[in-house]
Amino acid sequence: MDTNVNAPAAVAASQPPARPSRLTRLKESDLWYSFRAHPSAIFAAGLLALVALTAFLAPLITPQNPYDLAALELWNSEIPPIWNANGQMPYLLGTDTQGRDILSAILYGSRISLIIGFASVLLALSVGLTLGLIAGYFGGWIDNVIMRVGDVLLSMPFILIAILITAIASASLPTGLKDVLAAPILIFAIAVPSWVQYARTVRASAMVEARKEYVQAARLIRVKAWRIMLNHILPNCLTPIMVAATLNFGLAILSEATLSFLGVGMPPDQPSLGTLIRIGNQYLFSGLWWIVVFPSIQLCLIVLSVNMIGDWLRDALNPKLR
Question: In CATH, what is the architecture of 38-72+90-321?
Answer without folding.
Answer: Orthogonal Bundle (1.10)
